Amino acid sequence: MQDAIHYPDSVFCWVELSTTDAKAAKAFYSGLFGWDFDDRPTEMGGVYSMAKLGGKDVAGLGEMPQVMQEKKIPPFWMSYVKHDDADGVAARIEERGGKFILPPMDVMDYGRMIVAIDPTGASFGVWQPSKHLGAQVVNAPNSLIWNELQTRDLEGAKGFYAGVFDWTYQEDDKGYVVAMAGERVQAGMMKIQPEWGEVPPNWGVYFMVEDVNASAAKVQELGGNVMVPSTPAGDMGTFAVMQDPLGAVFSVMEFNGPVDPPPGA
């Protein structure tokens, strides 16, 4: 397993779960992915948990602020894009019609962060690393492998992220868009279809697994739900969409062949 040692600008580098019950969430993801957790106090008095795989950081986890829970916001995964100039990114977000949930702010001595909403309604984060690189393990079993935007305004989203992060795109004959940061293929975009119902615009997260069907069975054993069963993803592999027992949605994917090495490996 290779470690990620450096993320280029404009590449997804971190995901974190905001949940209503950190203890229950940790039990679920530990049972599913074999993650251990390192609980760390925050400046605001709460606890932020680092999910670890083989002693390496793979994701973050924390309980939602009470005000969010009172608004009945369901648990969710947040995706962060790495950039060494968070303030410059913030200016471009604002220029292109994005809104801030959290404007640029320092997170102790770990780094600088932004949480924003794109003009199509999907939330995302930006991470400017200092002591915290982001995920040390990606593109390996039980770690992050892909980030995917689901939106009702695909063209608007493409224009926004191209302007903010300088992404370029490739599109297949089914309308699936692949986003590239330089030469690195690193995210996907797709249009929300009417038959999906009231799915809100979102950046979904995919975790790599060795056996999608075994993972689906484990999710159900641990009290979660399988929302989309094992489904072919062209020649690439097989995916399924899951929901943890608290309500957060994520996907798992099994690949038919080798995957890209982590950034900087």
Task: Give an overview in words.
This protein is an alpha+beta fold and 265 residues long. The chain folds into 2 domains: 12-129, 2,3-Dihydroxybiphenyl 1,2-Dioxygenase, domain 1 (Roll); 144-255, 2,3-Dihydroxybiphenyl 1,2-Dioxygenase, domain 1, CATH 3.10.180. The protein contains 5 helices and 16 strands. The chain has helices at residues 22-33, 66-70, 86-95, 154-165, 212-221; strands spanning 12-19, 36-41, 47-53, 56-63, 76-82, 99-107, 111-117, 123-129, 144-151, 168-171, 177-181, 184-191, 202-208, 225-233, 237-243, 249-255. The strands form 2 sheets. The protein has an 8-stranded mixed sheet with strand order 2-3-4-1-5-8-7-6. An 8-stranded mixed sheet has the order 10-11-12-9-13-16-15-14, with helices on one face. α3 packs antiparallel against α4. The longest helix is centred in the N-terminal third of the chain and has 12 residues, at 22-33.
Question: What is this entry, summarized?
Answer:
It contains five helices and 16 strands. It is an alpha+beta fold and 265 residues long.
Key structural traits:
2,3-Dihydroxybiphenyl 1,2-Dioxygenase, domain 1, 265 residues, 18% helix, 8-stranded mixed beta sheet, single chain, alpha+beta, globular
Distance between the termini: 10 Å
Stretches with pLDDT under 50, minimum 5 residues: none
Q: Helix amount, in percent?
A: 10-25%
Rg, rounded, reads 17 Å
Strand order, largest beta sheet: 2-3-4-1-5-8-7-6
The figure for the number of domains is 2
Strand and helix order = EHEEEHEHEEEEHEEEEHEEE
Strand residue content: 35-45%
- Structural class label: alpha+beta
Q: Indicate the CATH class of the largest domain.
A: Alpha Beta
CATH homologous superfamily title of the largest domain: 2,3-Dihydroxybiphenyl 1,2-Dioxygenase, domain 1
Overall average residue pLDDT: 94
Number of strands: 16
Q: What fold name goes in the CATH topology slot of the largest domain?
A: 2,3-Dihydroxybiphenyl 1,2-Dioxygenase, domain 1
What summary fits the major beta sheet? Answer: 8 strands, mixed
How many DSSP helices? 5
**CATH architecture verdict of the largest domain:** Roll
Q: Give the overall silhouette.
A: globular
